[in-house]
């Protein structure tokens, strides 16, 4: 979605709320009951200080209790560790932060574009990441009876052209070197020495995929115990697994 289209959707509180309801990110009023009398609720526009807020109000005469449309929504309500709603942002401003996070912009860029404090932007970026972590932790296992799961591992590291030679610390510019006290690490500029130093090894990555989804894990060891634990955790028993014979 282009930024121009997005800002049209959140130009005011009502349109921003309607956008979330239409995408099932906020509960519809038909599914909300009053906390006091258990009666149906309806939308209510409250005007204060020249601004309009969309609330829920009880339909029952004599009750008319109001509550925020974001109540019981752990994401848009944004409770702190003490259970208090400390977010003073409008629902449109919250969507703006989420939109820029989705666009994978740097935090400093988001601060400039939204004029929000670094603390606010950092909190919302972390909140968005936590949602992805929870989704990943609660996702269903891959495979099933008769479904083929392909597994393989890969070492991510630098490589030389045509796979000839080794990529060592001596092949990197001096400003990128992180030389420690290890005897293997020799200053590449000393006495004109080149191609010396510890070999650059990246992490091992283990992947599983079926016809619809792939999952990848950074591992420290690629031994039988480590890989079998990942397979048992991520794959349904009875699935067919194809590998290259590791």
Give the SSE map.
Blueprint: H1 3-9, H2 13-22, E1 41-48, E2 51-58, E3 66-68, H3 91-102, H4 107-114, H5 118-137, E4 148-155, E5 204-209, E6 214-219, H6 224-234, E7 240-242
Helix pairs in contact: 3-5, 4-5
Entry summary:
This protein has 246 residues and is an alpha+beta fold. The protein has helices spanning 3-9, 13-22, 91-102, 107-114, 118-137, 224-234; strands at 41-48, 51-58, 66-68, 148-155, 204-209, 214-219, 240-242.
What does this structure look like?
This protein is an alpha+beta fold and 246 residues long. The protein folds into three domains: 26-72; 74-138; 148-175 and 198-242, no CATH class. Helix content is 28%, strand content 17%. The chain contains six helices and seven strands. The chain has helices spanning 3-9, 13-22, 91-102, 107-114, 118-137, 224-234, and strands at residues 41-48, 51-58, 66-68, 148-155, 204-209, 214-219, 240-242. It has a four-stranded mixed beta sheet, covered by helices on one side. A hairpin with a 4-residue loop joins strand 5 (204-209) and strand 6 (214-219). Helix 4 crosses helix 5 (118-137). The radius of gyration is 27 Å and the shape is elongated. The model is unreliable at 170-174, 179-189 and 191-197 (pLDDT under 50).
């Amino acid at each position: 979605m282009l930024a121009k289209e997005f800002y049209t959707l959140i130009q005011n509180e009502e349109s921003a709320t309607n956008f979330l309801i239409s995408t099932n990110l906020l509960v519809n009023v038909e599914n909300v009951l009053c906390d006091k009398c258990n009666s149906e609720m309806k939308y209510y526009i409250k005007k204060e200080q020249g601004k309009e807020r969309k609330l829920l109000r009880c339909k029952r005469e004599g009750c008319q209790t109001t509550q925020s449309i974001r109540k019981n929504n752990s994401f848009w309500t944004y409770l702190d560790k003490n259970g208090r709603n400390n977010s003073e942002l409008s629902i449109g401003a919250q969507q703006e932060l989420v939109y820029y996070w989705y666009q994978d912009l740097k935090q400093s860029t988001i601060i400039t574009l939204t004029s929000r404090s670094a603390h606010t932007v950092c909190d919302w970026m972390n909140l968005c990441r936590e949602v992805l972590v929870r989704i990943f932790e609660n996702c269903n296992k891959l495979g099933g009876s008769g479904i083929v799961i392909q597994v393989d591992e890969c070492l991510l590291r630098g490589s030389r052209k045509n796979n000839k030679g080794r990529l060592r610390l001596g092949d990197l510019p001096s400003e990128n070197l992180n030389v420690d006290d290890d005897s293997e690490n020799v200053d590449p500029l000393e006495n004109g020495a080149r191609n010396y130093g510890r070999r650059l090894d990246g992490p091992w990555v283990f992947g599983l995929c079926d016809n619809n989804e792939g999952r990848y894990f950074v591992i420290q060891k690629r031994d039988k115990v480590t890989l079998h634990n990942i397979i048992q955790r991520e794959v349904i028993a009875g699935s067919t697994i194809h590998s290259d014979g590791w």
